[in-house]
Amino acid sequence: MKPTLKNLSIAGAVIALAPLLTAMPAQAYVGPGAGLSLLSALWAVIAAVGVAIGFVLLWPIRKMMRSKRRKNASASANAQATAAKSDQHSA
């Protein structure tokens, strides 16, 4: 039988997967501190993603409120300026 690319691919896959099928279970102890560390890291990542999404979603609202506040401030400044001019002219 002549070695072909298909036969070599199958043989390579068998050789690559054999260590995964023969792996022995690890004799190790994972204490409660490791679980708590994992949970706190997970909560930190979830909180960071939530805050980032919140900032992105609230950005247009904050910008709209800021521009509205500036418009009101400039309108009141103009009204005060016109009132001051009319007071000067009437006095």
Automatic annotation (TrEMBL):
Residues 70-91 are annotated as: Disordered. Residues 73-85 have a biased composition (Low complexity). It comes from the Bacteria. Keywords: Membrane, Signal, Transmembrane, Transmembrane helix. The chain crosses the membrane at residues 38-61. Residues 1-28 form the signal peptide. This is Lipopolysaccharide assembly protein A domain-containing protein. It comes from Thalassospira profundimaris.
